[in-house]
Amino acid sequence: MLQAEAADVFWLDAGAAATEGWSFVGVGQPAELGEDVRLDVSPGDGALPPFQGGWIGWRDYETGAAAAGAPVSDDADPAAPSWLWATRVVAFDHAAGRTWTLSADDDAEHWADAVATASASPSTQSADRADGGDRIAEARHEPAEYATLIERCRELIRAGIAYQLCLTTRFTVPGAHDAVAVYERLRAATPAHHGGFVRIGGRALLSASPEQFLHAGGGVIRSRPIKGTRPRSADPQTDAALAEELAVNLKERAENVMIVDLMRNDLSRVCVPGSIRVDGLWVVESYPAVHQLVSTVSGTAAEGTTVGALLEATFPAGSMTGAPKLSAMTQLHRLEGGPRGVYAGCFGYVGVDGAVDLAMVIRSIMIDEDAAVVGAGGGITWGSVAADEVAEVATKARAPLAALGAEMPALWRSDILN
User: Fold this and answer.
1) What is the pLDDT of residue 134?
2) How far, CA to CA in Å, does 270 sit from each of 297, 301, 315, 357?
3) How crowded is residue 56: how many other Cβ atoms within 10 Å of its Cβ?
4) Fewer CB atoms inside 10 A, N or C side of the chain?
């Protein structure tokens, strides 16, 4: 209903079968993000939705890289609206099975009636068929080129210029796409606790992100970096072996702990000294397409800390740059040969009350009127094996491209890589 009636809409999606967490659906008006919102706040009412008004949208990678002092591509995505001031919201509490409506006081009754009417007439749109038939995606780099870039990353690491580099590439599917239908297919194939559909100014971000970049609530700030990926297997024994191998792999553990240390450093710039904690280290989380190695870092917001200060201290995320961050971003600019755009950025909500929930833009699609773009990459350490890293990129890009009705370019297909 909303996507047909409004140009600027959002759906922050906890997943089709979610039994916990919150989802938010609504509309808004393009607006500048309120970066002066303070995060050193008391805990709110846990019975109410965590988002009670504010901004929904995204921040692209180049905006953050430039602000941090790194070079960015001349052909980076042009400035365009990327945040909405939410005017009408439906909040779903998946654990309690409750629905809330949020709007201006003079619109509350009308909005609640509209939501009740829409809920009584559920959509019957199918997510089974890809629109436009099979297409072949265009790759920024061929696998051999990407493998060469991996070796250049390893040379930089050997020279002490970086400890780890998150090398990325992108795949483009030209032409028009039905963003809503594509998102239905993406969430059906790869549901995630931080999925999302956000359309602003004619551009649509579709995400099945499993990575929470920043969460703030009650004065506590958290980050949950992901480093380490393995594909799932239909065979239970093979699948369990893949998860176990990920859990003990020395290269993946080293990569993960480097990003944990980077996030500890970033959060220390805006948190009370001594409050930084590693709440979880090297935890394997499993999703329909992949196993991931996840850690959790938290701290208490220092007095006067604002959303702007938090983003300045932490964005772009270390899991998408490498370490040291500025050195890594500078080298990646030279290696990757083009902008990342919204990929490797973040998206979600910033509440007027200091509540923040921003996910990484990974496992995502950016659609405009001319094309759809899928970014993919992986962290490179001295212990990286180029063939394995190339195969990991293919694993990550395959599901978003399939949702677009597109195949991987011939040289990137798994039967050739493996």
Assistant:
1) 77
2) 13, 6, 13, 17
3) 29
4) C
Tell me the two tokens of residue 165.
């580099």
Give Cβ neighbours of residue 359 (< 8 Å, ≥ 6 apart): 194, 196, 207, 209, 211, 212, 213, 346, 347, 348
Rounded distance, CA 66 to CA 72, Å? 6
Helices 325-336 and 143-158, interaxial angle, to 10°?
150
Flag whether the pTM goes above 0.90: yes
Q: What are phi and psi of 118, to 5 degrees?
A: -65, -35
**Residue carrying structure tokens 């050997």:** 158
Reported as a single tens digit per residue, the pLDDT across 346-363 is 999 999 999 999 999 999
CATH number of 2-122+136-417: 3.60.120.10
Q: pLDDT tens for residues 249-267?
A: 998 998 899 999 999 999 9
417's tokens:
């890589």
Q: Is residue 300 helix, strand or coil? A: strand
H runs (alpha helix) in 269-385:
307-314, 325-336
Residues annotated catalytic, as ranges: 211, 227
- Pairwise CA distance, residues 21 & 325, whole Å: 31
pLDDT at 211 over 60: yes
Q: Does residue 332 contact residue 378 with C-beta atoms inside 8 Å?
A: no
Over its C-alpha atoms, the chain yields an Rg (Å, rounded) of: 21
- Judged against a pLDDT cut of 90, whether residue 320 lies above it is answered with yes
pLDDT digits (tens, 9 = 90+) for 271-300: 999 999 999 999 999 987 789 999 999 999
382, two tokens: 């001295």
Average pLDDT for 9-33: 94
Q: Per the structure block, which two tokens stand in for 176?
A: 């028009």
250-283 burial code (b ≥16 CB/10 A, e <16): ebbbbbbebbbebbbbbbbebbeeebbbeeeebe
The bridge status of strand 322-323 relative to strand 83-93 is unpaired
